[in-house]
Design a protein that fits this description.
The complex is a heterodimer of chains A (about 270) and B (about 375). With about 270 residues, chain A is an alpha/beta fold. Chain A has one domain: Thiamin diphosphate (ThDP)-binding fold, Pyr/PP domains (Rossmann fold, 3-Layer(aba) Sandwich), CATH 3.40.50.970. In chain A, the strands form two sheets. Chain A has an eight-stranded mixed β-sheet, sandwiched between helices. The relative contact order of chain A is 0.14. The model of chain A has no long low-confidence stretch (mean pLDDT about 95). In chain B, the strands form three sheets. In chain B, strands 2, 3, 4, 5, 6, 7, 8 and 14 form an eight-stranded mixed β-sheet that branches. Chain B is globular and about 75 Å long. Classes of the chains: A alpha/beta (about 270), B alpha/beta (about 375). At the A-B interface, strand 2, helix 3, helix 5 and helix 11 of A face strand 2, helix 2, helix 3, helix 4 and strand 10 of B. Strand 2 of chain A pairs parallel with strand 10 of chain B.
């Protein structure tokens, strides 16, 4: 099935700003699903609130646009009730790490099979450029006019210590790697987290002198390096890309089947 | 469990009734005085092939319940006041997206942490207006175990019939009270199942296009029809819209589907009302004391009756107005500062005849408490 058959064409062009990275995430996601050859009727996308959350309207899956930060909780109810479905949960950085932080760590701890994609543009875009838990110290935002004194989370570290069994990071510059990681995350038999650095030239770039979209993409190329690469060893400050965690632990839905057998005395 | 007389807690009755109604999934978070419902669900649901989840908070509990309902299961959560406050956000989502589910609130003394192990009935208005935005809501209650069973099943039936969240307001006293109950036989109480669309694969399915009777057939997530669900105002396909005429149509639909059918969900019991000159109106544990007093005073020849409400929202104003007509006075017995009293005053022809007998100190209101108020109203002193 060609990638365009996975979208709802009548809702295009999408609502994201020119230069936004989220369209690249959507594109990579479609390519990943296409490469896996999976039937779209078995896909559910559950999103929260924000720019990132609008992605669920564009895919021709079962789609649920829920509450700010709560997408993983809704998705948990769907997955436990119909474990045969592939559940993808795209989230923004504020969505996943601030208002949804608790749901994020507990979904990871539970190791319920679903794919959480954190589309990290380091800003609350839809509300006009307020700093997020991933903006980082010293950044500028409409609610940090004198510079941000909040320190950021490290999504990869947080997901890993919360118990996610697949944790990866890449950027919208590395589009092929992105599609590859999304595919691996979907195929992973447990809770998978993929952080995608996704540029927001409108709200973050403009206020932080990060340049326009091409410049921000270029900074993803120069500012990141693969785990254990020569480039990373030579420049320890670079942000690492790659798969940080990939392990198998008992998955929640399959564990629950064991509970049912036990309760029935089987 | 059928064909058996049990001596169990009200909370356990509620859980058993949910199983009887066909609940397939429960998600919750421990909170006094509702925890026994979750505990019993964790035992019973896997026995019947259902799923029990203990979530990280009440917010995620209701979200998970809504998600599970969308896949085609009857679902429920249970909590108390503080947890019910946290659920208001997702409650509004279930209203807007028209996803059936049942929310049990075993009321305790509030506000805030209040009196976790003591009774209160202060969440009546939270049930009605707790979530933001205009909406209609269904909330039911009970005062004894047979009615807890019946109203729990009714709550599921209303949820499925009207595609809406339904609130079951219990309280600490009846939740923890143990009394005898005969568990009804299968089929004894009619069950309303999920109304699924007959639209076949390949034909355009409109998840938010009501039929002529106002009902909206559903399609399970994961089944053949792929559609969108959103808490934004949406069109008949479930996609966001800001068109004023579509927005207006949806808010009217959400309110009218309940308000225009209110008589179909009105449940109440009348005790000794035929020749009554004085009427008590009560619900939940308070109604037990009210009934006790009515039966005692009847023995002394006093023409006194009780209207016990099982449906609180939509408020059965017509039933109340009719029952209060020609009464010397009406006494609303409840354990809050007069949340239903206010509704009764709005419903009756002469609100000056409506009084409140309450107790808000965490103790169950007693027949003596009520009698003292009656004497004050009659000018006889306590």
């Amino acid at each position: 099935m060609p990638a365009r058959d996975y979208i709802r064409e009548r809702f295009f062009p999408h609502m994201w700003c020119p230069g936004c990275g989220h369209g690249i995430v959507l594109n990579a996601l479609l390519r990943a699903v296409e490469a896996l050859g999976l039937d779209k009727k078995n896909f559910v996308m559950v999103s929260g609130i924000g720019c990132s959350a609008r992605i669920s309207g564009y895919v021709d899956f079962h789609s649920m646009h829920t509450l700010h930060g709560r997408a993983l909780a809704f998705a948990t109810g769907i997955k436990i009730s119909k474990p045969e479905l592939n559940v993808i949960v795209p989230m923004g950085d504020g969505d996943a790490m601030a208002i949804g932080g608790n749901h994020f760590i507990h979904a990871a701890r539970r190791n319920i099979e679903m794919t959480a994609i954190v589309m990290n543009n380091r800003i609350y875009g839809m509300t006009g450029g307020q700093f997020s838990p991933l903006s980082g110290y010293g950044t500028m935002g409409t609610t940090a006019p004198y510079g941000n004194i909040d320190h950021g989370f490290n999504t990869v570290d947080l997901a890993s210590s919360a118990g996610a069994t697949f944790v990866a990071r890449t950027t919208t510059y590395h589009a092929r790697e992105l599609a590859d990681f999304i595919g691996q995350a979907i195929s992973h038999p447990g809770f998978s987290v993929l952080e995608v650095l996704s540029q927001c030239p409108t709200q973050f770039g403009r206020r932080n002198k990060a340049g326009d979209a091409p410049e921000m993409l270029e900074s993803y190329r120069t500012g990141t390096a693969r785990i254990d690469s020569k480039k990373k060893r030579e420049n320890p400050d670079l942000i690492e890309r790659g798969i940080f965690v990939q392990k198998e632990l008992p998955e929640y839905c399959r564990e629950y089947e064991r509970i049912i057998s036990k309760a029935r005395g089987e | 469990m059928s064909d058996a007389v049990k001596f169990i807690q009200g909370n356990v009755v509620c859980a058993e009734a949910a199983v009887y109604a066909g609940v397939g999934m429960f998600a919750g978070y421990p909170i006094t005085p509702s925890t026994e419902i979750a505990e019993h669900m964790s035992v019973r649901l896997p026995q019947v092939g259902g799923k029990f989840l203990q979530m990280e908070d009440e917010i995620s509990s209701l979200c998970a319940v809504i998600g599970a309902s969308l896949t085609g299961h009857k679902t429920m959560t249970a909590t108390s006041g503080p947890g019910f406050s946290l659920m208001q956000e997702a409650l509004g989502y279930a209203v807007m997206t028209e996803i059936p589910c049942v929310i049990v609130d075993v009321m305790r003394g509030g506000p805030s942490t209040g009196l976790p192990t003591h009774v209160g009935q202060g969440d009546v208005m939270q049930a009605r207006y707790g979530t933001h935005g205009d909406h209609a809501i269904i909330a039911v209650t009970a005062s004894n175990h047979a009615d807890i069973f019946r109203m729990t099943v009714e709550a599921f039936n209303f949820a499925e019939t009207y595609r809406t969240p339904v609130i079951l307001l219990l309280d600490e006293v009846i939740g923890h009270l143990r009394e005898k109950i005969r568990i009804p036989e299968p089929g004894e109480i009619p069950l309303v199942g999920r109304l699924r669309t007959a639209v076949e694969h390949g034909v355009d399915y409109h998840p938010y296009l009501p039929r002529e009777d106002g009902r909206l057939p559903m399609s399970d997530f994961g089944d053949v029809h792929r559609y969108n669900v959103t808490g934004l105002y949406h069109d008949m396909w479930g996609f966001p819209t800001e068109k004023p005429e579509v927005v207006y149509g949806l808010i009217r639909h959400l309110v009218d589907k309940i308000d225009h059918n209110s008589e179909k969900m009105t449940r109440f019991r009348k005790y000794h009302t035929k020749d009554a000159e004085t009427l008590f109106i009560s619900y939940g544990a308070a109604a037990r004391s009210a009934l006790h007093l009515v039966e005692n005073r009847r023995k002394r020849g006093e023409r006194i009756g009780l209207l016990e409400l099982n449906t609180l929202w939509p408020f059965p104003a017509d039933i109340v107005r009719e029952a209060c007509r020609d009464m010397n006075f009406v006494l609303v017995v409840e354990m809050n500062m007069g949340q239903i009293t206010r509704e009764v005053k709005l419903a009756v022809e002469d609100p000056r005849k409506v009084y409140l007998a309450n107790r808000v100190d965490g103790e169950l209101i007693t027949p003596m408490d009520i009698q003292n108020i009656v004497r004050l109203i009659q000018g006889r002193g306590v």
